[in-house]
Amino acid sequence: MGMESLIPTLLRKNRVGEPLLRKLLLTLLIASFLLLTVFSLSAQNYLRVTFIDVGEGDSCLIQTPGGKNIIIDGGKTNQGKKILSFLKKKKIRKIDTMVATHPDMDHIGGLLAILDSNIEIENVLDSGHKHTSYAYQDFLLKVAERKDIKYYQPRAGQIFDWGEGLKVQVLSPAHLFHNANDSSIVIKLTYGLTSFLFTGDAGYPAEDEMVANFRKGLKSTILKAGHHGAKTSTSSSFLNYVRPRVAIISVGPNSYGHPVPKVLNRLKEIGAKVYRTDERGNITITTDGKKCWIETKR
Ligand SMILES: [Zn+2]
User: Do 25 and 149 have their domain in common?
Assistant: First the structure.
């Protein structure tokens, strides 16, 4: 029984004097206010970002204070099952925005399983970089089949509304690059004093343009380091503007040497604490806009 329905019952059943009644009502009001406060603190005021361990690839789930769910990339196709069971465990039946940073297999592969599932999807953001791969053709086809999806190709400078208190800016690409990685959609998400920079696989050319276009606007508390810690991303000049306190590297066993020691050293030099999905498993960062809590599986 909710508080609202409890009050009239008390009024009917207790023939009490006015002062006592007022006291009772006041107590109930305070109690309901406290309950609401506790409820909103536990469920609504937190932004939660989980970097899902998908091996060599990227996948990240954002749960907003207003209850929206955003997924950025889904790892390789063979990670689809894992992503789906992760969403199921979180009781997520709707993805408000699905971001395919760029058409590479280790980013869009796992998104296909979500498109095939009965999870509702409202918006899809795609870089628009043309790719002849079967996975990307399949991705476009599945998006088109879902008549309810709104499809966008966002560009640097665009702002998205993911709910009250959140600032969502697209920082890249300003235009499509020759290279699919550099065409990655880069998003900065700010909540109070905490900010996240999701870079996909953007490399030096894209980083240089972001530095030129946004300068100090790149500063972020948490950086998802570009391209699994490859030598083609996370330049010193880019890091000098981002100045992250925490860096996430989404990586698994690979033959490319990701993450390269050079990038790890640069991150260390700037004072960022590095968390790797291959070492920690899923990495969840929860923030109230001021403080951040990092939880890892390992
Ligand atoms: Zn990648």
Answer: no
